[in-house]
Amino acid sequence: MSAEAQGGGAGAADGPGEAAAPPLAQLTYEQAAARVEEIIKRLDSGEASLQETLALVAEGKGLIEQCAGELAAVGSALEELKLDELVARLEREAAG
Prior knowledge:
By secondary structure, the chain is mostly helical. The protein is built from 3 helices and no strands. The relative contact order is 0.14.
């Protein structure tokens, strides 16, 4: 079984003449989301072989997990910010 089919498809080219994607850890959220869109288009085209399909699905899963993790981190940071603002407002109200 190839490395691509085992989930190592992050650097796999999508087809003839297409450049390999950079490793997942090097992608920004926006780049990862754009890559997911490319993967979906390729899969929807019906032109991918079985091996390529397996590699693309594995890559897409990793990218989606990366994006979800980044969104969760941003959500947590926003919650902390809201709590900090609430505490500051309550302290101002208690002092004044």
